[in-house]
Design a protein that fits this description.
Structural class of chain B: alpha/beta
CATH architecture of chain A: Orthogonal Bundle
Bound molecules: adenosine-5'-triphosphate, magnesium ion
Radius of gyration of chain B: 18 Å
Strand content of chain A: under 5%
CATH topology of the largest domain in chain B: Rossmann fold
Distance between the termini of chain B: 36 Å
CATH class of chain A: Mainly Alpha
Oligomer: heterodimer
Number of helices of chain A: 13
Number of strands of chain B: 10
Number of strands of chain A: 2
Largest sheet of chain A: 2 strands, antiparallel
Chain lengths: ~325, ~250
């Protein structure tokens, strides 16, 4: 628990340092990268609730990321065209208010995760992976073939959505917004894992038979975790759409699901700060290795295999072991 | 006489050609310890799995407190007052013993769907969990993750968890195996104490313990109950002698 906290603070400090470097060095590009890392970290933190705390290997989290993104894109584009979203049974207008968009994104992702979770939780192991993947792919092909919102080409909306009087187009401000949301969510997750629900979730992961024997249904617990997980990844999707002022089916593709999973595994499965560290290192590698070779993802794959073979734990595991060694050396 | 807490009739379950439980009629009365003995592979654990709902029967019925429960899921049977200890400890390695017992208390205390309040601050629950752990003699090891507990300590924790459920019917599958003589003696004393509050099914291989504790004993061989009676009746039963106690007449 203590080491988990220190690791999380370290990852968050590193991300803040990257942002500060961009701000004081007057490098908006770095600020955008740092904001992207915060958003990916948030998406990974969402997945981590299912994957890390619930032991649910979901390869469909791009669905929630994309739903969040499209919620932002669709609402904003309607507001700017002055075309109502629908006229029947009630007239609903679009909006450029970020908080409203965030709430809609979270609701939409949470709603979609319900049938997806219900169905995939009836199975386990590989089938769980396949069903979550199938749901996300279904949504991907739907987005590609649905012309109303750009189809394959995606949907651009030029200006970021509005948050109070903040200058959201300012990269520094936008980074701070994303960073603050990430920080709040991590605090909430820390609280959740220490709650009654967190206890039940741990048992649902490590020994579902025992949980059922206590009179607590493991599936209900896991479904709840899956929905919370989807809601957070959906929020990340809305922020990502605003970051790029663009959404496309790519946000829904299985590559995206895989990437979110990489953030978690790279950083440390079931570790609070793991996805943040994973997302930071992922983006760093993408920038550094991507400059040398187009095949950087191959190298990333190698690095991942090594991490998994090293007994997992990811970056958080490495951090623990280095701390343990030092502790031993100091007696 | 009052109706028994648990009654099974004609309970059968096969695995392929093997009849692991074959037409089992057994009942557990309030306030008794009913021992179930039998050689390895007799079907004792299968019987416990059937009654608790881990697996379903091929045929037969199970009545718990007068309700037919054979189609109810495990969680519902637990809710009606059935608790069970596992022959092979079923615990969460990363959780402490105290957390296990607190979790077991939660269904009666407002459930687990509370997301904000830290369990560490639920003083009253932790105190009660501590009492359960003290009763099985592992209060001093309460905060250690299960991964760091010895085999015997895990057995003790199994009992503490079952107690926390305040069951009417308690199914104990070889609870003393691996406990050591001191732990076994303490558990025997504890079961004696609990006898008044609930009905207990005790699976146990050690005959001295069984004869000392049990009000009634059922003997299972090859999936069938071959005899039921008190200690004296079982000791002198010819079928039991030949089939199980290994004496030739
Ligand atoms: N899931 C299963 N699939 C196939 N066979 C099984 C299964 N579970 C139990 N059996 C078989 O059923 C028989 C009864 O097993 P069970 O575990 O109930 O015996 P037991 O009386 O508890 O034995 P022990 O004293 O060794 O614990 C054994 O022959 C066992 O191999
Ligand atoms: Mg057995």
């Amino acid at each position: 628990m203590r080491r988990d906290l220190i690791f999380t603070l370290a990852a968050m400090a590193a991300l803040l340092a990257a942002g500060l470097y961009g701000y004081f060095g007057d490098e908006p590009f770095y600020l955008t990268l740092a904001a992207k890392a915060a958003i990916f970290g948030l998406a990974g933190a969402g997945l981590n609730i299912a994957l890390g705390y619930g032991g649910l290997v979901s390869l469909g989290h791009a669905a929630f990321f994309g739903i969040g993104g499209y919620a932002a894109g669709i609402l904003a584009s309607h507001a700017r065209n002055y075309e109502p979203l629908m006229t029947w049974p009630v007239e609903l207008a679009g909006t450029t208010s970020a908080p409203v968009i965030w709430i809609v994104a979270m609701l939409a992702a949470g709603l979609f995760s319900l049938p997806m979770g219900l169905l995939s939780l009836r199975t386990g192991g590989v089938y769980f992976i396949m069903i979550t993947l199938a749901f996300a792919q279904m949504l991907y092909y739907f987005a590609v073939s649905w012309p109303a919102y750009g189809g394959e080409d995606g949907l651009s909306f030029y200006v970021r959505n509005e948050l109070g009087g903040l200058q959201t187009m300012n990269p520094w401000i936008w980074f701070l917004v994303c960073y603050a949301i990430l920080a709040v969510v991590l605090v909430l997750i820390a609280i959740l894992t220490r709650s009654r629900f967190g206890l039940a979730l741990t048992m649902a992961r490590e020994n579902p038979l025992r949980l059922a024997n206590l009179g607590i249904g493991p599936k209900r617990v896991l479904l709840t975790a899956f929905v919370i997980s989807a809601i957070l990844t959906g929020l990340a999707g809305a922020l990502y759409a605003d970051l790029n002022r663009f959404v496309s089916p790519a946000m829904l593709s299985w590559h995206m699901s895989g990437e979110i999973m990489v953030f978690v595994i790279l950083g440390g499965v079931g570790r609070l700060g793991g996805p943040v560290a994973g997302a930071c290192v992922f983006i760093l590698l993408e920038q550094v290795l991507g400059g040398f070779t187009e095949y950087w993802q191959f190298l990333l794959g190698l690095a991942l295999i090594i991490i998994v073979l090293m007994g997992s734990g990811g970056l958080a595991g490495l951090f623990d072991r280095s701390g343990a060694k030092k502790g031993a050396a100091h007696g | 006489m009052a109706e028994p807490l648990l009654v099974t009739s004609g309970l059968s379950r096969g695995f392929g050609a093997l009849k692991a439980c074959d037409d089992v009629n057994l009942d557990i009365r309030a306030g008794e310890i009913h021992a179930l003995i039998g050689p390895n592979g007799a079907g004792k654990s299968t019987f416990v799995k059937l009654v608790s709902g881990e697996i379903g029967p091929d045929t037969g019925s199970i009545h718990l407190l007068g309700k037919s429960v054979e189609t109810l899921p495990m969680t519902a049977r637990a809710g009606l007052g059935m608790a069970r200890s596992f022959q092979v400890s079923a615990l969460a390695p990363s959780m402490s013993g105290l957390e296990h017992v607190v979790l077991a208390l939660l269904p009666h205390e407002g459930g687990v769907f509370h997301f904000l309040r830290p369990v560490a601050r639920e003083r009253e629950l932790r105190d009660r969990a501590g009492e359960m752990l003290a009763r099985v003699g592992m209060l001093d090891r309460a905060e250690i993750p299960v991964a760091g507990l010895s085999h015997g300590e895990r057995r003790q924790l199994e009992i503490a968890i079952a107690l926390a459920l305040e069951p009417r019917v308690l199914l104990l599958d070889e609870p003393m195996a691996g406990m050591g003589p001191e732990g076994s003696a303490r558990l025997a004393a504890l079961l004696n104490e609990l006898r008044g509050d609930m009905g207990i099914l005790l699976i146990e291989h050690d005959m001295d313990t069984v004869f000392a504790l049990a009000d009634r004993i059922s003997v299972m061989v090859g999936g069938r109950i071959v005899a039921t009676g008190n200690a004296d009746e079982i000791r002198s039963d010819e079928t039991v002698k030949t089939a199980y106690l290994g004496e030739t007449p």
